[in-house]
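Hey, resending since the last one bounced:
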Amino acid sequence: MSSLLVEALAGLHRRGAMSFVAIGGLAIALCACLLVALIAIALAEPAPDVPDAERVVIVDFKGNPPGFTSPWFTSSPVAFGPMLKQRQLPLDQISRAAIVEPISRLNGERRPIQLLVADPDLAPLLGMRAIEGDLAATLRRHDAVAVTRDLARRLWGEHPIREVLGKTIELDGRPATVTAVLPDRDPRDPLWDRDAMAGFESAANTMDVEARDAIFLMTGRVFARLRPGVTVDQVGPWVRAAFQADPRYQQLPAEWRTGREPAYFRGLPLTRLPFEGEARVARWQRIGAAGAACALLLAMAVFNLINLQVGALLQRQRETALRRSLGASDGQLLALWGLELAIVVIVAGALAMGVAWWLAPMAGSGVGLPPSHPLADPVPGRAWAGLAIMLGLVWLVVWLPPAGPALRRMPAPALQGRTASEGPWGRRLRQALLALQLGGAALLLALCGVLAAQQWHLLHADRGFDVRGRLWLGLKVDPDRADGLRDFTTALSAQPAVRHWAFSSARPGVDNGGQMVIYRHAEHKETMRVTTVSAGFVDTFGMRLLAGRVEPAPMDGEPRVVIDAKAARALGFATPVAAVGALLRGGGGFLQEGEAPRRVVAVVGDVKLEGATTEARPQVFLLDESPQRDLMVHGDDLAALQRAIEDVWRRHGPRIGHEIRAVDELLASAYAQEQRLTGLIGAIALLAVGIAMLGGYALIADSLRRRRAELVLRRLHGASDAAIAVGLARDFLWPVGAALLIGLPLGAFAGSVYLRGFVDRVDPATGLVMPAVAAAVLTLVVTGLASARHLRLALRVTAAEALA
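The structure tokens again:
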């Protein structure tokens, strides 16, 4: 065995360049696959500290009001907790959990903190422990709170953790005693990100009675443990029965519950939570797309390796004949070739795992995972097992098929110097493998082009407002509790760098939810998206005014609204001018009618505040000069505008937490996941291009080796350089043509499937045709670069070299 290993290593050393190409191409593809696998494994893992996690369920809720499609929320009204306890169901440790945001003083500013309020049973149910103090006792006390280490540092600086116990923290003006310190949150935790934790019935819980008792409002999560013999499928019907038996069920609008289900319920096992919810489903779709691209990349690397293996065995015909004449059996030859290939595969796998481990934090950050999310420290056992299985399959696929024809060749002709060629079918097979490699590269390039075109469209589409030259100032505290905000806005208006400013209850293009209310005019009624804004909002965002005037509404006057052209059409107005002065009826609750009067004072052009995956709703802007959490400012010079805002805030602003960002940056952040997917597919496409270049390089090198004598004879008969180049190019004509015919339509199809997920998408000419043309050009360039060096060598071959 040791002598066989020495021979295998010596053979790889003799074919140094080819061995390097084989290892490099396979390692690149395996590394990409490993990175996607590590991310998928990390995201699929449930919280590690939860005992018997598959028996812990979350009560899940899906609203079904008329005319409104609701997803599964992976949350529910916290009122379901007491409702289920009252029914004496076979569920243990039924617990409520919710996030509230009381105000505390941090670093001299009043800021909200993320406070998780929970029932005492939640701690043992989810295996939660404190690193100092007693968490279970804290959740039972009325005046106690547990803080995270990070919050303790922000409040009191670097102190030993034990010294934090007994300190007092102010929450909305009420003191709470720190009786426990929490560890840093594991990102796989089924609860939310939090700064502190207190009992649900404690004084720290700022949730009002209406929110606690609501049965159709997503206020938190309800957890429970299934008793032995109980299945998760039983939970949904139990919750439905409790929901319909509650007296508050009769308070829902009659049209929601008459002859129909107003909501759906289910029990969601904790092990399924990483795969549920709109955001998580979209994330898994992106991971699936990246995984498919990596699988294609790995297939290309395997095709390249098969090509190289076939070429290597053809070049070694004389060596193989000598070994057989000296008594080597077919088994010994197979063992030698298999060991050589095994070394290549193992080295490529080790290199891939090392690079993947090194790149894992960067890859996790690239897909939006927090630095604390465990990816590859240590590498999960499933990743090692998957790599071992993949290496074994690659080894078998590359080793056995080329070995059969090599063993069937007779040794005598090879010993006489008449080595057999691979024949026309062998060359066609290798050309077909190259066509698949180039086709895969063309597919990924075309798909990457579609994603890039759609990303550009998302950031530059006309939504009826302009985000350039606008800054957002977000308040961390309810404006009603921010003393001095009026002084700030007065001073802001006097700044030369400020052209317009306005308050808003939402950030256009970023906050995609919004309040949905039914508005009515005469016999027409429509569900509108309502945003509360001050009078300067239309000018601040450069909206096109079609009719009317927008002036500040008096604080005690008739409510005034600005509507967009879609809303005017939906309410039956023939023209925008006809809508001005009309009296609408609205002001109801979520998806409900109201009787409050709303006077239309202006109509603007069509506006789309929703994201690109949501149909644009008719828009209503309710004019109100009261401060809102979002303040939008417009100026000609963004840098000067930011300096002016910061200076005015320093001199006149209240001492509360705030954030300043460019509105176009906020819009880009709303499509961060699409941008990450585009970057990921782009990186994989570049790797595919590299592997395709290796395949083309190997094919042209082998073609030149086989046709050296032919090239010299053609040169002696007067063939020009161009004629020789054309002759060599024939080996590439049909592989490149087949690659484009296969890869480009598949890339366009995959791109069209991706675009179907968007309501607002790029036009086909820009989004599908242009990326396909660009991919075709790049594929031709790649092929030219791969063959350029060997074509240059072919033109320099002399008769003496060929005859030698």
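The first strand starts at residue 56 and ends at 63.

Sorry for the duplicate.
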